[in-house]
Amino acid sequence: MPQMDLPLEELRRYLPDREEPDDFDAFWAETLAEARTHDRPPEFHPYDACLSEVDVFDVRFPGFGGDPVAGWLLVPASATGPLPCVVGFLGYGGGRGFPYEWLTWPAAGYVHLLMDTRGQGGSLQPGATGDPYGSSGPSSPGMVTRGIQDPADYYYRRVFTDAVRAVDAARAHPSVDPARIIVSGGSQGGGIALAAAALADDVGAALVNQPSLCHYRRALHVVEGNAYREIWTYLRTHREAVEPVFRTLSYFDGVNFAARATAPALFSAGLMDDICPPSTVFAAYNHYAGEKDIRLWPYNRHEGGGYYQDLEQLRFLRSLPLTAS
């Protein structure tokens, strides 16, 4: 497959204007304030995963509207004091799966809280969290267009709120140093991580692999795959809804969250990615307000760096004051 987006020298300079509603900050402040009125503590139930070197907990914490959100918490069994914690978010369609799928971070000396994504987990790893909200309007199959004509009803309002509450939940566990929280994810998870980096309090670092949910207009003009295809299909059918849809999406655009995030961040992009085009990744990266770096994989599509990028992330975190060693 040939390179399908802008040349690299243009990507490095690519800084599009942000589409941002005037009440962006107020919208999120009110959303999170309401979520935190549901202040019951997170639950961490010991879980026998047949792992001798990692203590596993089946997690439930209150997310948007106080809805119970599932997750896994993995703690190195040898831990003697509070450790930094990587709070992880999943790609589109994935659920929390099984604990033994998520051993990299505890093997490296970090606590790992993996958040289940509400309403997903039916096409990749299995999930355990429902989404009990109906939509006030029609949607394409999948999750990305649910409630898409009203920011208050939009599906990702719930997901991004869940992500902030996942950070809150991680901080509540005695094995976690609340001052050393890292948010991490790829694709959809990368977009969620950008939102969490901007909205959660005092995040220590962000690991953002080929994020989706960024620079929507550009994405829909360049690719038609995966989640963006659902939006494209919706707009193809609801021709009158273009501007209401993009107004809603402006409250959830990773570019706007990037402009508010200040934690040190490591991004990545596959330069042949036909799911999350490189220009949308660079739009978020170039607007990112904090210290940042990016790893590029010239011949890779949406898989990006894969295990190579895992090693880059481990090295990146080791270079920061919140290192686990």
Automatic annotation (TrEMBL):
SUPFAM superfamilies: alpha/beta-Hydrolases (SSF53474). InterPro entries: AB_hydrolase_fold, AXE1_dom, CE7. One of its GO terms (molecular function) is carboxylic ester hydrolase activity. Substrate binds at Y92. GO terms for biological process: polysaccharide metabolic process. The active site is at S187 (nucleophile), D273 (charge relay system), H302 (charge relay system). Residues 1-319 form the Acetyl xylan esterase domain. Residues 122-141 are annotated as: Disordered. Residues 130-141 have a biased composition (Low complexity). PANTHER family: CEPHALOSPORIN-C DEACETYLASE. This is Acetylxylan esterase. It comes from Peterkaempfera bronchialis.
